[in-house]
Write a structure and sequence with these properties.
It is a single chain. Helix content is 75%, strand content 5%. With 241 residues, the protein is mainly alpha-helical. The protein is rod-shaped, with a radius of gyration of 44 Å. It folds into two domains: 133 residues, Helix Hairpins (Orthogonal Bundle); 96 residues, no CATH class. The chain has a three-stranded antiparallel beta sheet with strand order 1-3-2.
């Protein structure tokens, strides 16, 4: 009897592999976004440096006006600061190009991720359908055959138990009444199971030893086993050496 609970069909394997591939692609795109962001971060600092230096330059003039000082007192400071601003402006121009390229790449990657998410939703739906199909296949190919095997094993066990009991009852009867009186029959010859919604009538069509009582029911007819076990047991008990 197959007792495995592992679901495995070609469709299920393909659905799982497809979803895993999409998740791996998305993780790769996330990693790529992180790399671009780290690479473009210094460019953002370069662009910000111009604004910081310009604010510092404005602060110099603010100080002059507040203190009533002539411009000549800060000429050297302004010249040095202007040189820094000029250098920073050149770097900022290059940095803006870097940031624009980074933004374009990020937009392309995010568009790919959006497509991946749509594909992942479809892949998840396919996986659910594949799982349902695999469960149905396991039900038909494993669970139902296992049930039928178990019912047949029970039929055999019922036959052995009641056959042995019938032999015991007949031996007691013979001891009390002799062989010419009416002898006992087995108390039970059939067992009925109501297996709702399993459609056993169709599933047992043509089965050699089990038969359906109605659409849901199964009859375990152990009569022939009971009789054979009773005969064999009585023969074994009455055989003389």
């Amino acid at each position: 009897m197959n007792t495995t609970n592992t679901l495995s069909t070609d469709r299920l394997k393909a659905a799982r592999a497809g979803l895993q591939a999409l998740k791996a692609q998305d993780q790769k795109l996330i990693t790529e976004l992180g790399r671009i962001g780290r690479q473009a971060a210094p460019a953002g600092a370069d662009v910000g440096a111009v604004a910081e230096l310009s604010a510092k330059r404005q602060g110099i003039f603010d100080r002059l006006l507040r203190e009533g000082l002539p411009t000549s007192t800060v000429e050297k400071e302004l010249a040095a600061l202007d040189a820094q601003i000029q250098t920073a402006a050149a770097k900022a121009e290059t940095a803006r190009g870097m940031l624009a390229a980074a933004a374009q790449l990020e937009a392309e990657i995010n568009a790919k991720r959006a497509q991946n998410h749509e594909a992942a939703r479809a892949a998840e739906a396919e996986l659910r359908a594949a799982v349902a199909e695999a469960v149905a296949a396991q039900f038909e190919d494993e669970a139902i055959p296992d049930l039928i095997d178990a019912l047949e094993a029970l039929r055999q066990a019922v036959g052995r138990v009641y056959g042995t009991k019938l032999a015991m009852d007949r031996m007691r009867f013979l001891q009390s009444h002799g062989p010419y009186e009416f002898e006992p029959n087995a108390a039970t010859r059939t067992v009925y199971f109501d297996l709702c919604a399993l459609g056993m009538e169709e599933r047992l069509r043509g089965h050699a030893t089990l038969r359906a009582g109605n659409y849901n029911g199964v009859i375990l007819d152990a009569g022939s086993i009971i009789d054979q076990v009773a005969r064999d047991t009585l023969a074994a008990c009455t055989t003389t050496a």
